User: What shape does this take?
Amino acid sequence: MDRRTWLIAALLTAASGYCANAADTLVKIADVRTLTRDEAAEERHVHVRGVITWLEFPNMVIQDDSGGVWVHILEARRRGLISIDDAIHAKLSCGSDVEVTGISIPGGYATILLPTSIVIHGSKPVPDGHPIDPRQFFAGSEAGERVEVHGIVQAIESVPTGWQLVVSSDFGQFPVMAMKSVLQQPEHLLDAEVRLRGVAGSLFNGRGELIGPRLLCGSPGDILTEKEAPPPEAVPLVPLNELMGFSPHARPPHRVRVRGTVTLSVPGEFVYLQHGDRAVRVETTAATAFAEGDEVEMIGFVQQRSFIAMLVGAEGRKIGQNPVPAAVSISPQEIIEINSVSKSRGLPAKPHDFDGHLVRFSARLLAVQKELEHHPDSLRLVLDTGGMILTAEIVGPESLQLTNLLPESVLEVTGIVQLDFPDKLLPTNRVHAQRLDVYLRTAADIAVLRRPSWWTPSRLIGVLAVASVLLIGVLIWVWELRRQVSRKTLELAAEMRARRDAVIEFDATMRERTRLAANLHDTLLQTMSGLAYQLEACESESIPAATRKANHLETARRMVQRGQ
Assistant: This one.
């Protein structure tokens, strides 16, 4: 093969490879959105062009005629796929017409694009967005696309990058993220009817499973007020017993006004109101402190949490003073029984369900738990009311007055009932409480009826521990004493043996001495005496009396006498 032929073959091979790669490259965002997680993990080549519809640098959303997709610049930079300087960053904005080349990967929820290059071609109008398909929107299928939805703003919260709104639509409730460039002063939007345009987003968990939808508003004009919020005096006044009752006409999710007498108030968190036989919990972030017996008017949104209707996001004012409703003497078991009978009969609880009402009952204290997580100056009492275990919680400085309560004390408890319902719905048209807890207003809501016996379990354990230590000490002392006695006994026995051996030896010595003395007296002494007599006789017969003193016989006789 000559050089020219080889060059042509190489060019044909390269061209065929380029064509194959071009055929595999995704050029429509709709094709990227349809990739499964496994297909996206193959890092398919993507080359798309679209308009930036959401920008929270270093991440953004782009949309073409077929759909929208998330572009994660931060992850691409972490992998070393792209490097964007401040100049390019400054040119990017919502409405920028960009050409993005990159690869696909499975995102936290939907497929996302990691860019390897971003080219800016100018700017275009941001798409208006199509009206949401409720089923698609709440299923998360419209994530990344510009949509439009109508609703009523029910809550506003400041976040670092802007505002988070809670919007209630005809199809359900969802959060809305609004950039500061879109919304400067959002307070006027509370309870207003609005038209929202933005990028459909999703809330998801670490397994890539949908939790719920959300809307991202990042372009001017994305939030339009269609109907101003009614002034407080125009908000309809609703009795406490009609918050979520039956009505042949659906009520719009606007705010309502309620009136009632305060039975418990925790500033910045909640207030319990009671009027007649109905009591309601009102959640509020306002720091206004209401006193028990204050008649107040609260304005807020009706929601149902834990199967009980309540007011949320409420604001209120004092309008008068009423007597505090008297506490009803009733046991927790009776309250549960009343609700159970109500469920079985399919009728309202008689006289009422007691949720939010002030009741009084006796209970045995099991434990005192200090400094709960949500309040450093709080306290929880664990109570036993004849087999039912419940808690009584108090918030505020007065909780310190209850820290010295002793377990096993019998108490009289006065507090606000909070019914506790099952976590899952049962196959019935009604649910009923299975247990309850209570909120204490002040330390005076606890009265000690009977103090625990001195022989509390802790003290009994302490006495048993001391007795055990003493018993162990006595056993050790007895063991040491026995060891000492055993040692002394051995020493005494050894000494007695030594003395006995000494006596035996002494007796043997004396017997031996006596025997030797007898032998000396009977044998040797007699022999020497006889010898002395013989010497004396020899001397008398052989030596004259005049010369005896100097002879040998005399000397021998004297030596025998000395030996005797």
